[in-house]
Structure formats: structure tokens, C-alpha cells
Design goal:
The complex is a heterodimer of chains A (244) and B (205).
Chain A: E1 2-8, E2 12-18, E3 33-37, E4 41-44, H1 52-60, E5 68-72, H2 78-81, H3 84-90, E6 95-99, H4 103-106, E7 115-119, E8 124-128, E9 131-137, E10 147-151, E11 156-160, H5 178-192, H6 196-207, E12 213-216, E13 222-223, H7 225-236
Parallel strand pairs in A: 4-5, 5-6, 6-7, 11-12
Antiparallel strand pairs in A: 1-2, 2-3, 3-4, 8-9, 9-10, 10-11, 12-13
Chain B: H1 7-48, H2 56-106, H3 110-163, H4 169-204
The chains are: A alpha/beta (244), B mainly alpha (205).
Domain Metallo-beta-lactamase (chain A): 29-218
InterPro entries (chain A): Metallo-B-lactamas, ODP_dom, RibonucZ/Hydroxyglut_hydro
Pfam families (chain A): ODP (PF19583)
């Protein structure tokens, strides 16, 4: 397993954990992203237990552990934060940014070292060394308290479950033909995204951003015109199917 | 030393701690019942007057050891929160150590080695803390065991005295039976707990 580069700029780079071997195992089911600069690093959605040691090994190949200063959790699902108590042991002085709504749940991890910085509903910013990252509200997509992370320099939006494809082929990193990809995302978005209003709010907010890469938690990433295609498709999709 | 890579064993040991603590409740309940019995027996002995003269010091004795048992059990209950915390810490340290052994299979570096060593130390420290807490617990259970030996002796003595209590003989006989029964229940729970502690301490060595 290794961290593959998604973006490399003067101040920092974006990386994604790539797993070799079976495409159907649980390891390959979650995308994990890592921002690395000379002075500080950030790990997004630290992941499930099965990913802890491979992710830690991959991180150590790029940085010293005391430079991993920041964790970001988009929401509270087990595949997103089940390893929090393990990271809490591994890194002594890091800050965890997560929705403040989850404050009382984070307490159940019995963290000793990680400093919890609850992000209010309006969102906020993370200053990672010289890099400014925006925390964008994505509430109810799918979790009640949900954030995405946007990097205006790299033009990458980590979109958590928005854009995710579950159990889809991972033969390429990026979606190549959106019309063929739709069948892997349609049911997931209809069922997991509960609110058309929340979806419309998010799309309006995201359309104002300059995005080169849309990076979801699961499945292929969207690049260039595929990003716009996805947004247009999502805009038209009727979600919340289980309540209809 | 605990088999660190075996998550199932680690959790099994945590369950053992939980079982020990759960048994405390039945010990405490029986000890409180003993205390009540002593008070009732004192009333019966007073009403029996001279016929139950030999029973009076016995009721004082029952009262005394039931209070001691309640005090020991309460101390153990206070310890139990601490014990759970330490046991939980060991579970977490063991899980983390397991992850560090996996890390070494992914990465051959000085930092990975250092993290492995640190995780091993933390795991050993946690095991040692749990062992110490269990040792303290063992002492308290041994105290209760001695108190129950006294209770069994009193049950026999009070049975003899009850036969001399005339009309109050049946009432005092039932007191003796209850003491014997409560002492037996408490002893069974204590013996079980001491055996579990012994097993746990063996695993932690």
C-alpha cells in the first residue's frame, strides 16, 4: 500500500491511499486522503480499523509522525472514524476537526491525546502551515452534521459520501465516462441522501467553487468536466427514496 | 504475559473483570440481609428474655461481621470503577500493540520499530497496573472469606442456643439457617471471584 499523489503544488500535496491486491476487499472500499506540507500534515476521515496500520505505514513513508498535526472527520460513520482511539495513541498533539454536533459522541472514544475542535454548522477553516483549507457545510448529505473539505489552491473538494460509489470497479482512479458510472452511484445517492433541499443548498454552494477534483469517500474520483457532469446529474436526482 | 495478538483473549479477560464486579452485587445484597437479620434476631432475643440469654452476644457478633462485610464490599465497589478503567486501558493498549505488529509487516523503519517498542511498554505497564489492582481486590475478598468462616461458626453456635429458647426456638432457628445460607452464598461468590482473579493474574504475569 502506498500514498499516490493527486496534486502537487509549491506549498503542499494531496495524496490518496492506494491498495494493491484484491479490488473487492474492504481495504479498497474506502478512499483515504492526506495533505502533506513541509511542516504539517492532515489526514482526512481516518478510517476503519482494517486501514489503520496500512495508512500509518504509508504516512510514515512521507512524514514524521509529530508533523501529523491535524485530523478531519467529515461525519461519524464507522468507516470514517472507527480508528480514532488508535490515532489518539499514535499521535500525541494533534487536533481533530469534526462537526460540533458530534461532540457528545466523540466523548465515547475516550480520547487521551487528540484535541477535539468542534466545527459549528456554518463551517470554518483549517490553517495547515501556510495552507488555508475551507470546511464546507454538507449537512444531511448524508449525516445530520456533515462537512466537506475544500482546498482553493489545489482545487480539490473532498466530498465525503457525495459522489461515492459502493462496490464499483476500481480499475481506474478517475471516472472516465460518467454515463457508465451513473449505475454505480444512483441507488446509493437516492437511498443515503435524505433531503432534496439539503442537496440543492450544497450544489448551490459548490457551484461557486473552482473544482478540478471531486474526491469522495468511496469509488472513483471526478476530474475536470466529470465534476460538472456529476453536479448536474445530482441536481436532478430525487433523493430520500426510503421515505417516499 | 498476556497473548497480545489474541484480541479474543484480551476481551475474554475484560469479561472476567466484569463478572467479578457483577458478583459484588450479590455479595453486598447478602451482607445487607445479614445485617438486617442481626437486628431482627436482637429483637427476638430481647422478647425471649432469659430463654435466649446466650443469643444476645451472637446477635452482636452477626451485626459486627455483617458490617465488616458491607464495608469490605463497599471498598471493592469503589475499586471496581478503577478496575474497569485499568482493564479497558489494557484492552486498548493490546489492540494498539496488535496494530503496531501489523505496522512492522508494512514498514521496515526505525520509527515503526520505536512505535512498536513504545506500544509494547504501554501494554506491559497497563498489564502491571491491572495486576496490582487485582492484588488489592484479592486482599479484600480474602477478608470477606475470613468473615464468612466466622459466620459459619456463628450459625452452628446460634443453632445450639436456639434449641434452648423455648417458644422462640423456631424464630431463632430460622435466623441460624439464614446466616448459614447467606454465608454459603457469599463464600461461593468469593471463591469464584478469587479463582477468576487467580486466572487473570496468571495470564498477566
Amino acid at each position: 500500500m502506498k500514498l499516490a499523489e493527486l496534486y502537487k503544488g509549491k506549498t503542499h500535496s494531496w495524496m490518496m491511499l492506494e491498495c494493491s491486491g484484491s479490488k473487492n476487499d474492504t481495504h479498497s472500499a474506502v478512499n483515504q486522503y492526506f495533505i502533506h506540507s513541509d511542516y504539517e500534515s492532515l489526514l482526512m476521515d481516518p478510517g476503519g480499523i482494517e486501514l489503520f496500520s496500512p495508512m500509518l505505514a504509508a504516512v510514515l513513508q512521507h512524514t514524521e509522525l509529530d508533523k501529523l498535526t491535524t485530523l478531519f472527520a467529515s461525519h461519524q460513520d464507522p468507516d470514517i472514524i472507527a480508528t480514532l482511539s488508535l490515532w489518539d495513541k499514535a499521535i500525541a498533539n494533534a487536533t481533530l476537526y469534526a462537526p460540533s454536533l458530534w461532540d457528545r459522541f466523540i466523548g465515547h472514544f475516550d480520547l487521551d491525546n487528540l484535541h477535539f475542535e468542534g466545527v459549528s454548522d456554518e463551517g470554518g477553516e483549517i490553517q495547515l502551515g501556510g495552507v488555508r483549507l475551507r470546511i464546507l457545510p454538507a449537512h444531511y448529505l448524508h449525516a445530520a452534521g456533515n462537512f466537506h473539505l475544500y482546498d482553493p489552491t489545489a482545487k480539490v473538494l473532498m466530498s465525503a459520501n457525495v459522489g461515492s460509489a459502493i462496490k464499483a470497479p476500481s480499475d481506474t482512479k478517475f471516472v472516465e465516462d460518467f454515463s457508465l458510472h451513473v449505475k454505480h452511484i444512483e441507488q446509493f445517492h437516492k437511498r443515503w441522501m435524505p433531503s432534496n433541499q439539503a442537496k440543492a443548498n450544497w450544489i448551490a454552494r459548490v457551484k461557486e467553487l473552482d473544482i478540478d477534483i471531486l474526491a469522495p469517500n468511496h469509488g472513483k474520483l471526478y476530474k475536470g468536466e466529470q465534476v460538472q457532469e456529476f453536479l448536474e446529474w445530482f441536481d436532478k436526482l430525487d433523493v430520500g427514496s426510503a421515505a417516499k | 504475559m498476556i497473548s497480545i495478538s489474541d484480541d479474543v483473549k484480551v476481551v475474554e479477560n475484560f469479561v472476567r473483570v466484569a463478572q467479578i464486579i457483577a458478583n459484588l452485587e450479590s455479595i453486598l445484597t447478602q451482607a445487607k440481609n445479614l445485617s438486617l437479620t442481626a437486628k431482627n434476631a436482637r429483637v427476638v432475643a430481647l422478647r425471649a428474655g432469659d430463654a435466649a440469654l446466650g443469643f444476645k452476644p451472637i446477635t452482636n457478633f452477626i451485626d459486627e461481621f455483617s458490617e465488616q462485610t458491607i464495608a469490605s464490599t463497599t471498598k471493592i465497589a469503589d475499586l471496581s470503577n478503577q478496575l474497569f478503567k485499568v482493564a479497558h486501558k489494557l484492552v486498548r493498549c493490546s489492540q494498539y500493540f496488535h496494530q503496531m505488529t501489523l505496522l512492522k509487516t508494512h514498514l521496515n523503519s526505525k520509527q515503526a520499530d520505536a512505535m512498536y517498542q513504545e506500544a509494547l511498554k504501554s501494554q506491559r505497564r497497563a498489564a502491571s497496573q491491572l495486576s496490582l489492582a487485582l492484588s488489592e481486590l484479592e486482599n479484600h475478598f480474602e477478608d470477606i472469606q475470613k468473615q464468612m468462616q466466622s459466620a459459619e461458626y456463628i450459625a452452628v453456635t446460634s443453632r445450639v442456643e436456639a434449641t434452648n429458647a423455648g417458644d422462640f426456638s423456631d424464630s431463632l432457628q430460622s435466623v441460624s439457617d439464614f446466616i448459614a445460607s447467606a454465608a454459603k452464598t457469599i463464600k461461593t461468590a468469593v471463591v469464584y471471584n478469587l479463582s477468576e482473579i487467580h486466572t487473570l493474574r496468571g495470564v498477566l504475569k
